[in-house]
Amino acid sequence: MRIRQWFMTALLIGAVLLGGCSFQGSTPVASPSPESTTAQTSPTPSATPTPANSPNSAVSGLRRLQGKATVEMVVKGSPITIEVDGDNAPVTAGNFVDLVSQGVYDGLAFHRVIRQPEPFVVQGGDPQSKDPSFPIAQLGTGGYTDPTTNAERYIPLEIKPEGATEPVYGQPISEPPVLRHERGAVAMARSQFPDSASSQFYFALANLAFLDGSYAVFGKVTAGMDVVDQIQQGDRIETARVTTGLENLQPAQ
């Protein structure tokens, strides 16, 4: 079991972590993609945010989702229904619903699909994939750039422990979280820096308990998991729409 977890975590570094790069000092070194044993040069990662010093500073200026919302994502003509949980991940859920409501995910590709040696994740949401000529192998470094500030938006790692009244921000937790990496979970991809998530997300294709406490789950697939199971690398999100709960998205504070 430990060997399996180590192996899947190694895949995570190349497949789920945003940027796909390992760092030695300040110099990024391209990691091999999971589909190839040959290292490929990736675009230079965007500036890494500094972790917040307190929960208040961590969420300052970010929108929150109070309660739940439903998102319908269409891939290859078939819908995927996602329940977004603002009760337990208000900032992460708010970020996702905000981006969906702006149409940010429309036309973006799923650039990482890991099913071998066993089902793992389907990852998408890199805005660079909007350009069909952008090489799939170089995706994984992009995030959402706010047009009003021309700066990339980062959100903090947000995980609520079981029994807690508030999430923990900016650091992994060792306690069991409320939202877990069960099959169908939807979570944010990030680099090795906790507060580096932006727009990239992934679907869990299996129960991935060893990721609990380290990555922010913010929702789950409630219908259309069969569609997720058929997604291939390069498939695109045709549309993503908030079908219920948009009124629960609060203004930035």
Q: What do we call the CATH homologous superfamily?
A: Cyclophilin-like
Q: Which structural class is indicated by helix and strand composition? A: alpha+beta
Q: Give the tally of structural domains.
A: 1
Low-confidence stretches: 15-55
- CATH architecture, by name, is Beta Barrel
Number of strands: 14
Under CATH at level 1, the class stands as: Mainly Beta
Helical content band:
10-25%
For the termini, the CA-CA separation is 44 Å
Strand order of the largest sheet: 5-6-12-11-13-4-3-14
* N to C succession of SSEs: HEEHEEHEEEEEEEEEHE
Average residue-wise pLDDT: 84
In one word, what is the shape? globular
Strand content: 25-35%
What is CATH's topology name? Cyclophilin
Number of helices: 4
- Main sheet overview: 8 strands, antiparallel
Please provide a written account of the structure.
15% of the residues lie in helices and 25% in strands. It is an alpha+beta fold and 253 residues long. It has one domain (2-21, 67-229, 239-246): Beta Barrel (Cyclophilin), CATH 2.40.100. The strands form four sheets. It has an eight-stranded antiparallel sheet. Strands 1-2 form a two-stranded antiparallel sheet. Mean pLDDT is 84; it is low at 15-55.
List keywords for this structure.
8-stranded antiparallel beta sheet; alpha+beta; 4 helices; 253 residues; Cyclophilin
